[in-house]
Amino acid sequence: MTHQTARATQRYGPMDNRQNEITPDNCEQAFRGHLANAGLELAELTLGAGLETFVAFYQSHPTDTEELDLQADLLVLQWGQYDRSCTSETFQVNLTRQIVINDSCDDDEIYRLSLTFHYAPDTTAPPDANTKTNGTRSVWFKGEQGGEQEDLQCWSDGLRETATYQRFAKTTPLKVTLLWFEL
């Protein structure tokens, strides 16, 4: 085991954790249980704790590949100024787990578990040193379930280096929402 793999295993737990497999029917409940087991409340999460918890959930709760014809199990961190609720615009930092299931009869089934941190509408992300931009951005993790842990570690470490993460990691959001839906 490499030092990096050992560090990732220590931080996120072992990759092979089949007793916690998720399906579209239990993903949201499994994440809420994961939060409770960690002693965390959804409404009290910061972005820093949310990222750690979301990545640990991804690591410890693989998609049930025996029941599902899995095409992809992805993570994305995205941020920007949005008015998704049609009530008020907020600056949002969103962590999403996207599960794509092959459907031989129709279009693929796409499910999303979306954890969103809402901040004051006048809040803007500082310019990102990597992209020289502020505003909206998405950073995807497209690793295979059961693949290299170093990839997940590099992805999450890279997120921690963004100006947006550094600005909001410990900031208390106005609210935190969790949604599970099919696209």
How many strands, what sense, and barrel or not for the largest sheet? Answer: 5 strands, antiparallel
Number of helices: 5
Please state the oligomeric state of the protein chains shown.
Answer: single chain
Low-confidence stretches: 1-16, 129-133
Summed over residues and divided by their number, the pLDDT gives a mean of 79
Distance between the termini: 39 Å
Q: Approximately how much helix is present in the residues?
A: 25-40%
Form type: globular
Amount of beta strand:
25-35%
**Classification by helices and strands:** alpha+beta
Radius of gyration: 16 Å
Provide a descriptive summary of the structure in words.
- By secondary structure, this protein is α+β, with helices and mostly antiparallel strands.
- The protein has one domain (3-182).
- It contains five helices and five strands, in the order αααββββααβ.
- The protein has a five-stranded antiparallel sheet with strand order 4-1-2-3-5, with helices on one face.
- β2 and β3 form a beta hairpin.
- α1 (3-12) packs across α4 (149-160).
- The longest helix has 14 residues, at 47-60.
- The radius of gyration is 16 Å and the shape is globular.
- Mean pLDDT is 79; it is low at 1-16 and 129-133.
Task: Give the tags.
183 residues; alpha+beta; disordered N terminus
What is the gist of this entry?
This protein has 183 residues and is of the alpha+beta class. The protein is built from five helices and five strands; from the N terminus they run H-H-H-E-E-E-E-H-H-E.
